[in-house]
Amino acid sequence: MPADQAREHRTMRMNPEKPALRWHFPEEEILQLTEASRQEALAQARALLKQWWLEAILQQIGRHLEPIPAPEEQVYYVYGVTWAGLSVQGPEPLEAIPFRNLQALVRRVPAHEYGLDIIRQRLQDTEWVREQLRAHHRLLAALQLEGPLLPLRFGTICPQKAHVEALLEANYEDFCATLALLHGRQEWTLRLGADRARLKEAIALVHGTRPDDPSLEAEADRLLQMAAEHCHQMLSTLADRSEIHQLDVRQRPVLRAAYLVATDQADAFRNRVASLQRAYQTLGIRLQLEGPSPPFNFARLHLEEAPAAAI
Asked: pTM for the whole thing?
């Protein structure tokens, strides 16, 4: 055997060729394996969907089992009465409840703060009452409407809309008559005060005495009384109605009075106040005019209270 052939023979004996690995599965077995895998995947999907549905159902059941909070109970705070159909604008949205020719201006407020029993209890708290009165008056003073407004007292509370209507019905004639009186009129308030030291200096200058002379006290009282009465008389001639709430020379203010003035007389009324102020300022007497404001002092009402309608 030639040498080359001998070397090739030895190489083949040392590195025999490995046969290729080829697996063969019957078609039926492949179909079985595929079907088994599909069934397992479906089972896993069903388990996952079951868990999702279970969680959703439990959440829904939980919502049904939780107590549903009841809507907050509200009552009607009645601010005032005016003619039906008049447009009203204000700093807070108000609801108009009509009855025949009238409408009540109301605001719905929480019963736990403004219920009848709650307000009766809190009337002992003077600071709370003072703040509530200021808020009540501020809102009424800020209202803009086309006609007269009949302001109701602070704390006129009606539990339901039917009670508001009953309040209007029970006081219908009185409300209509008072609105007719207030039509075309405004309320103004005058406060008259004095610097007593300056007043006594002026008196001392006239009488040639010392400002600290004790006898000047009585003269100062007399002049203050005369000035207050004179101012009130001069302003009353321009008002349809007037009333004095305080006249005491030892109090501050010395005079506090209210005037119901026709709208077309308002400028003349203010001018007269300014004229009186100029006349008396050298004596240390000051006049302060406030208004116009809702006619609290001339809305003389004797409310017939419907059941549970007002405090």
From this structure: 0.65
